[in-house]
Structure formats: structure tokens, C-alpha cells
Amino acid sequence: MIPDEQIKIKPKAAWKVKGEKLLENYYWIGMMSIVTFYALFADDIRILLLPKGADMTLDVLTIIAILLYLIELVLGVICIEKYFMSFYFWVDFVSLLSMIPDVSFFLDAFEDGIGGAGDGADIAKTGRASKVIKIVRIIRLIRLLRVVKLYKQVKTGQKIKNQKI
User: Do 39 and 102 form a contact (C-beta atoms < 8 A)?
Assistant: First the structure.
């Protein structure tokens, strides 16, 4: 057994500590909660309530949300120990990827690449659409897991704050 005085714990770099504090900051968590709820419901609201002219504005907001998810993912990988390849890493990663089809010009480009003209093409598109709807439901579940993650971060932060008092 190694005596305690021989065990040397390497301190974290200051920038890693700052990055981890940013990710645990209540303002950051609050902002990412809003972004997550946006990711969950914005596309449905766009389809149901907004005119076609609002698509570009929502596309820009969705791209901003994607960038924020990407920043959070990269900071998590760099700053948080054992985050890479953890359960929450995969939740964040799949959530990030799932937002790409929400950007209408990405989806339009994808549909143009798949489709072709003809009677069979319409039937095939309908079949693909039903599969896409099922996939979207699964993706929403994964996005909801982000809400659970954010809730857990808030609770952990409260416990740490209470322990300091």
C-alpha cells in the first residue's frame, strides 16, 4: 500500500477549472435549458403556427442552438473528467446531431438528393416520411434526457453549495 504522502494528485489546469465552472454555472444551465426546450418544440410550433416566411429566422436560431450544443460538448470533453464516451456524452452528441434535420435547408437538400420523379417515388417518400416521424419521436426522447441531465446538474450544484455553507 502506498503511503498518503507519496500519492501526488496532479492539479487541474486553471483553464480546465474555469471551463468546468462555466458548464456548472446556473446561468449556463438555464440558457441550455431554454435551448433544449427550443430544440424540443420549435419545429412543431413552426409547422403548426408560423408562416413559411419564418423558416429562415428559425433556421438561424436552430443553428445557434446547434453551436451552443457543440460548445457544451467540446468543453465537456476537454474540461470534465470521464465525460468523453459517458452516457451523458452520447445524450449530448445525439441531441446535437438530431437538430441538423430541423434546419429546413439541410432537410430540403437531403430530400432533393433522395427523391426522383415518378409514381413510385411518391409512394417511397410516404414510406420514408412515416419512418422519419418514428425516428423524430425517438430523438425527442433523447432530447428529453438532456432535460434530466440539466436537472441533475442543478441538484448537484445545490448540494455542493449547501455543503460549503
Answer: yes
Tens place of pLDDT for every residue, the chain, 165 residues?
A: 556 566 677 788 899 889 999 998 989 989 998 998 898 888 888 888 889 888 899 999 999 999 999 999 999 999 998 999 998 898 889 888 888 888 887 767 666 665 554 455 554 555 555 566 666 667 767 777 777 777 787 777 777 777 766
Using a 10 angstrom Cβ sphere, with 0-12 exposed, 13-18 middle and 19 or more buried, the burial of residue 159 is exposed
Give the three-state DSSP class for 44: helix
CB of 66 closer than 8 Å to CB of 100? yes
pTM summary value: 0.68
Query: Which three cell numbers, joined as nine digits, stand for 126?
Result: 410516404
Residue 63: all three cell numbers together: 443553428
Side-chain half-sphere CA neighbours of 77 within 13 A: 11
